[in-house]
Amino acid sequence: MIQTDICIIGAGPVGLFAVFEAGLLKMRCHLTDTLPQVGGQLSEIYPHKPIYDIPGYPEIKAQELVERLMEQIHPFHPGFTLGERVETLTKQEDGSIVVGTSDGSLIHCQVVVIAGGLGCFEPRKPDIEGLLNFEGKGVEYMVKNPEHFRDKKVILAGGGDSALDWTIFLTDVAERVTLVHRGDTFRGAPDSAEKVFELAKEGKIDLILQSNLLSVFGNGSLEAVSLAGRDKITKIIPTDYLIPLFGLSPKLGPIAEWGLNIEKSAIQVNTFDYSTNVDRIYAIGDINTYPGKLKLILCGFHEASLMVQSAFKYVYPDQKLSFKYTTVYGVNEF
User: Fold this and answer.
1) CB 262, CB 253: distance < 8 Å
2) Does 325 score more than 70 pLDDT?
3) Strands, E assignment, 110-186
């Protein structure tokens, strides 16, 4: 059985930063994740996507941020159980908790921190004829490696940030990029939308608005898609890849069975310390909810820093917390 102070469920950016904050207070952490690698959605879905709202970084690629966080927490030697889903939480007589995973791993801890992002998630698949037949054969639901699309014809569908960001990024990678959106305005960042319109105006991409995808077809692998616009006229567009980006469907999985207060697939927390209604269980990052919640990585970092201050009392019940600044003492002195 693995022994630790804090078991963090979710090895995304917020979970990783929580290791740093806990380490400053001399608390050991062990992280679990259903994914086979650290980084959460940043590594699994958009490792090459630029992120613009991390303090000190005007722009940083998602995977680079994960690598920086891993470098930051290295002095605290966290443990990892990856590729396994947490299934059970068992309270012990002394109040501590044993966390059990799908593969039989057991982690004994004083505090559990749920930092699972959207929880267990899967892409929302649009109702397009023949779509499932071409999964892995030209239909992709995420961009893991942009080089996979080098010199290929690519159609992206969607109106959110991911569709806009990948349209911009793949413009310089793919042979031709087409963005299809059923509306005429975008839900994503205004700056990104403006850039997409400018790329279309310059003839660098094809932008098709007020249109719906109807079907996909090909001989063994994807060859073309059909779509219909407001005029009801069906158009056939040859392509090598179709990437529908309609968001993710969050599923809490076993977390929903742990007696936590849930609101719209998110865990309700107390903003004093991001504790849940269950003693010794906290929730930070996108998986929690409270009035005024913003689903930003930097907000999750803030939540992690306050959470560990509260968790300290369970790990060291006989000690008084003495807050120190890293600028004064240095990380290696904590």
Assistant:
1) no
2) no
3) 111-114, 120-123, 153-157, 176-181
Q: How high is the pLDDT of residue 188?
A: 79
The Cα–Cα gap between 21 and 205 comes to: 44
Under DSSP, the state recorded for 243 is E
What does residue 25 show for φ and ψ, rounded to 5 degrees?
A: -100, 20
The two tokens of residue 268 are 């309700």
Between CA 4 and CA 109 the distance in angstroms is 5
What is the percent of the chain where pLDDT is above 70? 92
DSSP helix/strand/coil, 71: helix
305 pairs with which residues across the strands? none
CATH 3.50.50.60 for domain 2-121+248-333: yes
Residue with token string 């529908």:
244
Give yes or no on whether 2-121+248-333 and 125-244 have one common fold: yes
Q: Find the mean pLDDT for residues 180-201.
A: 91
CB within 8 Å of 198: residues ≥ 6 apart: none
Around Cβ 212, how many Cβ atoms within 10 Å? 15
Distance, C-alpha 287 to centroid of its chain: 10
CA-CA distances (angstroms) from residue 267 to 22, 123, 303? 22, 21, 14
For domain 125-244, give the fold. FAD/NAD(P)-binding domain (3.50.50)
Q: Which two tokens stand for residue 287?
A: 């998986």
**Dihedral of the CA atoms 20, 25, 30, 34 (nearest 10)?**
-50
Task: Indicate the burial class of 279 (C-beta count within 10 angstroms; 0-12, 13-18, 19 or more).
Answer: exposed
H or E element at residue 88: strand 86-91
Backbone dihedral angles phi then psi of residue 215, each to the nearest 5 degrees? -155, 165
10 within 8 A of 33, measured Cβ to Cβ:
yes
Cα–Cα distance, 143 to 130 (Å, whole number): 21
Report pLDDT digits (tens) over 13-22.
999 999 999 9
DSSP state of 319: S
Tell whether the model's pLDDT for residue 331 goes beyond 90.
no
Amino acid identity of residue 211, one-letter, is S
